[in-house]
Amino acid sequence: MVVIELYGVARLRAGHDHVEVEASSLGEAIQALGARCPALSPHVVEGPRLSPSYLVAVNGRHLTADPDTPLAEGDVVVLLSADAGG
């Protein structure tokens, strides 16, 4: 399983702080997230892609929105708003 952690608007829309999905790529994970949490479409999730205002951090190291990014069992994907800041 891959864990997708949700924050901010994505968490509010989904009604969950995280979702566990079976996926071997970021695109599969995003598509599974959209299927499990339909309220995320189209504002956060657009099929196998993220909306342009979102990125993910894979295992806290790799920032991307590329749906071809490989994922492995136990990976943690943190969904981030690209315009968030302090």
From TrEMBL:
Q: Which residues cross the membrane?
A: none
Q: Which CDD domains match?
A: Ubl_MoaD_like
Question: InterPro entries given for it?
Answer: Beta-grasp_dom_sf, Mopterin_synth/thiamin_S_b, ThiS/MoaD-like
Source taxon at top rank: Bacteria
Q: Which Pfam families match?
A: ThiS
Q: What is this protein called?
A: Thiamine biosynthesis protein ThiS
